[in-house]
Task: inverse folding
């Protein structure tokens, strides 16, 4: 008699995975939510008041936060180091660009279909890549990314070849930088909210449990492969969405967005920001994008600077900026009880305090 | 027949240089369990050093330049090992990949300062330039130099790994580093020697192919992909597998060009995917530990 696999919520309960990252007192949860709202408000106000060129730059950074968070679903929470998410970013971008070039899809249709194309492409690629583990998985996804790049570069009739596709593929109502910023920010906000739900659902908890102790989860009867494949497909869906937003920003699509170094970018963003924190990659995306954008203006040596930053973080702070923030908070918390203890040890002083 | 000979020699030559680069990558992985994304950087530096040292002279000076390039880059490799790689040995694959990618970025920038962004070229030294005739085919003499180098490197590596105490230590370092260390072997010095040798092999390959290619920035990122394809097909850590895989990649590329030029460059990727579907750990590798 075939036994059915246990459901994810039950597995999460057995494994004792914390039900949510947002544990802690109500006050700290409210505080965190307020900080988030303030941050989103700040970005929106900036996007609407900045000069067009800067608003456009901010829009690009916002779209990259989605790329980074979507990649981090499998990287930080699934423990799958993929150097191939650029494939899906490219599928999203090329869906919009080629739909326009071949006059087969209008802008709205292409934007709606792009993430689904990415997800569909992810099924065979994921099935193939997940046959391998750890380092081989990274190298195989890297290979696939480079294959996608070579195809986009050489199939000139289909993709426009090395030069890519440039043109008026974005409808006129979206051309105003402030409108396109709002459009991008709204889509990214909804997408990141959905990803938050995924990470904090029973499915997300089991995914983290697989990352931490694969054998144990397997022993509980969980289909590990199905969970990893599902995560891979969900990640691809949102990477493609981010890719379609790239077209809104640049009105173009070209092979370089698919190659292995491009696939590395969201990984680096997650590493810089902190891959074990949900919002770490958001921070990483802003830091990476603004750093490279402004560095190019001031120095030719942006590769040197970014390389040095990556090296410093990966060697000194493997949990990224978010991790540093966490240890700072822990350090502050550790200081406070010490003060209280001093107070308690001196009863004559304690009498005066409530 | 003439066509067949031309293609065969060309394929062997490509596979030969690819084998020498990839052998360095797999040697380092075999002994240290580190995959070095900056390995292609050593190849590029090897080529650039040759263009500087050899200049336009095409005689003995070219061979001197090849030796100088290999040695200079071996020293560079030692510096990278001491400065970065030694801290990521035994760490997660992600840490190793990001750290060595950072090295790739940094050294690519340094190379831009040293050699500029333009393409450079070197002509093959007299005596090994030009063509020879065999069964009606005109074949480049220099291809034989590359094939010879690859065979020599393969033989030396095989002798080193299977017939010397250093080779035993390298293989033992993979299986049980603690035991090896408690046996009085200085693991750090062993890693340093292996990593410098890996860099030397990459630089040797980069140096030896200079007469046939144009030397320019970006070489580092393209050769590392081909080398990764080779070591993944062959099985990480296996020198024999690397030799077979380099041949497979070379043949896939040649056949691809003959069948359909617009799809040519995809053949080697499909070869990799095909092999990994059948054996996810590569032809001569061991299942994931």
Result:
């Amino acid at each position: 008699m075939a036994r059915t696999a246990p459901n994810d919520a039950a597995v999460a309960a057995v494994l004792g995975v914390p039900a949510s990252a947002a544990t802690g007192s109500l006050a700290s949860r409210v505080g965190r939510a307020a900080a988030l709202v303030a941050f989103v408000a700040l970005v929106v106000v900036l996007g609407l008041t900045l000069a067009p060129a800067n608003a456009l730059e901010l829009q690009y950074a916002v779209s990259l936060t989605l790329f980074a968070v979507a990649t981090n679903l499998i990287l930080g929470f699934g423990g799958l180091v993929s150097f191939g998410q650029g494939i899906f970013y490219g599928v999203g971008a090329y869906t919009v660009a080629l739909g326009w070039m071949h006059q087969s899809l209008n802008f709205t249709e292409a934007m709606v279909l792009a993430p689904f194309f990415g997800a569909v492409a992810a099924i065979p690629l994921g099935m193939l890549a997940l046959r391998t583990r750890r380092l081989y998985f990274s190298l195989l996804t890297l290979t696939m990314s480079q294959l996608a790049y070579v195809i986009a570069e050489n199939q000139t009739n289909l993709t426009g070849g090395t030069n890519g596709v440039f043109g008026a593929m974005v409808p006129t109502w979206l051309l105003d930088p402030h409108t396109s910023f709002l459009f991008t920010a709204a889509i990214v906000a909804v997408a990141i909210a959905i990803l938050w739900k995924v990470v904090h659902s029973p499915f997300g908890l089991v995914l983290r449990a697989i990352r931490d102790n694969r054998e144990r989860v397997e022993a509980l009867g969980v289909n590990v492969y199905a969970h990893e494949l599902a995560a891979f497909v969900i990640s691809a869906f949102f990477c493609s969405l981010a890719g379609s937003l790239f077209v809104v920003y640049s009105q173009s699509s070209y092979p370089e967005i698919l190659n292995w170094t491009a696939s590395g970018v969201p990984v680096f963003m997650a590493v810089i920001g902190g891959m074990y924190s949900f919002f770490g990659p958001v921070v990483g995306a802003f830091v990476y994008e603004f750093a490279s954008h402004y560095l190019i203006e001031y120095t030719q040596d942006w590769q040197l600077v970014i390389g040095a930053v990556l090296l410093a973080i990966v060697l000194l702070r493997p949990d990224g900026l978010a991790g540093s923030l966490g240890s700072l908070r822990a350090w502050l918390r550790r200081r406070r009880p010490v003060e209280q203890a001093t107070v308690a040890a001196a009863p004559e002083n304690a009498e005066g305090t409530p | 027949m003439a066509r067949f000979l031309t293609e065969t020699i060309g394929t062997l030559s490509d596979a030969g240089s690819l084998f020498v680069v990839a052998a360095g990558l797999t040697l380092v992985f075999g002994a240290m369990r580190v995959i070095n994304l900056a390995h292609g950087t050593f190849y590029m530096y090897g080529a650039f050093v040759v263009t500087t040292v050899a200049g336009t002279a095409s005689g003995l000076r070219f061979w001197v330049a090849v030796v100088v390039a290999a040695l200079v880059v071996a020293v560079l490799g030692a510096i990278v090992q001491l400065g970065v790689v030694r801290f990521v040995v035994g760490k997660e694959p992600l840490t190793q990949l990001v750290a060595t990618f950072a090295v790739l970025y940094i050294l690519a920038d340094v190379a831009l300062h040293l050699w500029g962004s333009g393409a450079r070229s070197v002509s093959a030294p007299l005596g090994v330039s030009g063509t020879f005739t065999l069964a009606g085919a005109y074949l480049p003499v220099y291809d034989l130099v590359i094939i010879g180098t690859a065979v020599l490197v393969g033989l030396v590596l095989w002798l080193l790994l299977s017939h010397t105490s250093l080779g035993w230590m390298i293989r033992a370092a993979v299986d049980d580093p603690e035991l090896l260390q408690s046996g009085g072997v200085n693991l750090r010095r062993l890693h340093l020697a292996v990593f410098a040798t890996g860099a030397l092999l990459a630089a040797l390959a980069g140096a030896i192919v200079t007469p046939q290619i144009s030397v320019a920035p970006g070489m580092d990122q393209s050769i590392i992909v081909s080398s990764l394809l080779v070591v993944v097909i062959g099985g990480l850590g296996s020198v024999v597998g690397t030799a077979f895989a380099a041949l497979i990649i070379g043949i896939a590329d040649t056949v691809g060009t003959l069948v359909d030029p617009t799809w040519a460059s995809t053949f080697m990727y499909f070869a990799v995917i095909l092999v990994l579907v059948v054996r996810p750990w590569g032809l001569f590798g061991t299942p994931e530990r």
User: Anything to note?
Assistant: Residues 2-32 of chain B form the longest helix (31 residues). Strands of chain B lie at 131-134, 137-140. Chain B touches chain A at residues 35, 84, 87-88, 93-95, 97-99, 101-106, 108-110, 112, 221, 225, 228-229, 232, 236, 262-266, 269-270, 272-273, 276-277, 280-282, 288 (CB under 8 Å).
